[in-house]
Write a structure and sequence with these properties.
Strand 1, helix 1 and strand 2 form a beta-alpha-beta unit. The protein contains 12 helices and 18 strands. It is about 35% helix and about 25% strand. Bound molecules: flavin-adenine dinucleotide (FAD). Flavin-adenine dinucleotide binds next to helix 1, strand 2, strand 3, strand 12 and strand 16.
C-alpha cells in the first residue's frame, strides 16, 4: 500500500549489496540522513559471487575471520589444449563467504538511527525536481515516495539508476555450482578457451572439499558450462547448489551526474581480466563517502562538483587500472589455442614466473605490465602476435586513448 506523505532524506542509496552496504556503513559515521532501498528481503541473497578476493581487501577493510573460508597460494592457468602453468608468490587471495560480507556491513550500518533500510522494495521511478537553490531527486517504490538531495546507484550491472542516466553496461552471463570434489584446496584454477574468451572457467576451493566451479561468457553459457564440467569429469547432478548472475564487461563508466553518482557494478567498476569487482568498489566507496561529505558541506550536488571529487579521483586510481585490465582482456580474446601454449612455454622457459610472482597484483596490474613490457622475450611474442593481427593494434591504441 502506497503512503501519501513524501519521506525526505539527505541521501538515497539504491541497492543493498556490497557497494550499498559498505557505503552505508561509511556514511553511518556521519550525521547525514540516509535511506537504502533494496528489492530483496534478505541481504546478500541470492548469492552471485565466486568469493575470491586479493589480500588487498584486508588493507581496505577490517575483514572478520568468520568471513574467510580459505586462502589459496597457487593460481593454475590452463590453456585450451590442457597445458598449464602454476603461479605462486606474494599474492595469496582470500576465499570468502560473500553472503556474510554483505550482512556484516549491513549489520554495522543498521546500528545508526540516521540510516533507514527499506528491504523488499524495488525503485520503480526516478525524477529530478528542478528547485532553487538546489535541485533534488524523487524516488518511488511500490510502497512510498521519497525525496533526497543525492542519489547513489549501487544497483548492480543492469542498474535502474544507470538506465535513467542512459548509462548501460555491456554484460557477460555467469553461472556457478558448488560441489564436493577432489581438486587441490590450495589452488585457484582458471581455464581459458576461445568459446568463453570474454572471461574463463574457474575452480575456487571453498574448503572442506567443496569447490565453486563456474564460467562467464557473452553467449551459450549453458552449453559452455556443460562442456567445462565434462572436461573436469564433474557430474552436474552432484551439485550442492547453483548461482548465476551478470558481470559488467568493459572499462569504468562515467559515474558523476547532477545529484547522482554510480558506484560498483552499476559504474562498471569491475576488472575485465577476472570479473572481480569487490576491491574496486570498496576503493571507490571510500572516495564516494569523502566526496558526499564534501558535497553536503559545500551544499553543492552539481555534476561538476561530484565529478571533481568522485569521478576523477576514481579514474585516477581504479579507472587507469581497469583500463589495463580491459587491454589485457582484449589481447587474451585474440589468443588462439597455440598462442596460449606459446605464452605458457615462454613463461616457463624464461622464468617470467618470477616477475609475475614478485610484481603480480590481481587488482593493480600496472607495475607488472610495465615490468613485462621491458622484457625482450615478451616484446618479441607481442610483436609476432600483432604482426599476425595488425588491425587489432588500432583497437588497442583506441582503448589506450580513451579517458
Ligand atoms: C557469478 C559471479 C561471480 C563473481 N565472482 C567474484 C569474485 O570472485 N570476486 C569479486 O571480487 N567479484 C566477483 N563477482 C563480481 C561481484 O559479485 C560484483 O562486482 C559485486 O557484487 C558488485 O556489487 P554491487 O553492490 O555493485 O552490485 P550487486 O551485487 O549486483 O548488487 C546490486 C543490488 O541492487 C539491488 N537492486 C537492483 N535494482 C534495484 C532496484 N531498482 N531497486 C532496489 N534494489 C535494486 C539488487 O537486488 C542487488 O542487491 C562475481 C560476479 C558474479 C555474477
Amino acid at each position: 500500500m502506497m503512503t501519501d506523505s513524501v519521506e525526505e532524506f539527505d541521501i538515497c542509496i539504491v541497492g543493498a549489496s556490497i557497494a550499498g552496504n559498505y557505503l552505508s556503513h561509511l556514511l553511518s559515521k556521519t550525521d547525514l540522513k540516509v535511506v537504502i532501498i533494496e528489492e530483496h528481503e534478505d541481504i546478500g541473497l541470492p548469492l552471485q559471487c565466486a568469493g575470491i578476493i586479493s589480500q588487498k581487501i584486508s588493507k581496505l577493510i577490517n575483514l572478520p575471520n568468520k568471513i574467510i573460508k580459505n586462502r589459496v597460494r597457487i593460481a593454475k592457468l590452463v590453456s585450451p589444449t590442457g597445458n598449464s602453468i602454476e603461479l605462486s608468490g606474494n599474492e595469496t587471495p582470500f576465499i570468502i563467504d560473500r553472503v556474510l560480507l554483505d550482512k556484516h556491513f549491513y549489520a554495522l550500518a543498521k546500528t545508526n538511527d540516521n540510516l533507514r533500510f527499506y528491504l523488499g522494495e524495488r525503485v520503480k521511478s526516478l525524477s529530478i525536481n528542478k528547485e532553487t537553490p538546489n535541485q533534488s531527486i524523487t524516488i518511488t517504490t511500490p510502497r512510498r515516495i521519497l525525496k533526497a538531495k543525492l542519489l547513489v546507484g549501487c544497483d548492480g550491472p543492469i542498474s535502474f539508476v544507470g538506465n535513467f542516466l542512459n548509462i548501460r553496461n555491456k554484460l557477460l552471463y555467469a553461472t556457478q555450482i558448488r560441489i564436493k570434489a577432489q581438486f587441490s584446496e590450495n589452488k585457484a584454477v582458471l581455464i581459458f578457451n576461445p568459446r568463453w574468451k570474454e572471461l574463463f572457467g574457474w575452480i575456487v576451493p571453498e574448503g572442506d572439499k567443496i569447490f565453486r566451479i563456474g564460467i562467464a561468457c557473452s553467449s551459450q553459457i549453458r552449453e559452455n558450462f556443460m562442456l567445462l564440467l565434462e572436461s573436469l569429469n564433474i557430474d552436474y547432478q552432484d551439485r550442492i547448489d547453483q548461482q548465476g548472475g551478470l558481470i559488467p564487461y568493459g572499462m569504468m563508466n562515467n559515474c558523476a551526474f547532477d545529484n547522482i553518482i554510480l558506484l560498483g557494478d552499476s559504474a562498471g567498476q569491475v576488472k575485465a581480466t577476472t570479473g572481480g569487482g569487490i576491491v574496486m568498489l570498496i576503493t571507490a566507496a571510500k572516495i564516494a563517502s569523502k566526496c558526499i561529505q564534501k558535497a553536503f558541506n559545500a551544499k553543492d550536488f552539481s555534476k561538476k562538483f561530484l565529478k571533481n571529487h568522485y569521478e576523477l579521483p576514481c579514474k585516477k586510481s581504479i579507472g587507469r587500472e581497469l583500463k589495463i585490465h580491459f587491454l589485457i582482456r582484449k589481447i587474451l580474446e585474440l589468443f588462439d589455442k597455440n598462442d596460449f601454449d606459446s605464452f605458457f612455454k615462454i613463461v616457463k622457459e624464461y622464468q617470467i614466473e618470477k616477475i609475475i610472482s614478485v610484481y603480480g597484483d590481481m587488482d593493480f596490474p600496472r607495475e607488472l605490465v610495465n615490468k613485462m613490457l621491458k622484457n625482450p622475450i615478451i616484446i618479441k611474442f607481442l610483436l609476432k602476435f600483432i604482426i599476425r593481427k595488425p588491425i587489432h593494434l588500432v583497437k588497442f591504441l583506441f582503448i589506450s586513448l580513451r579517458f
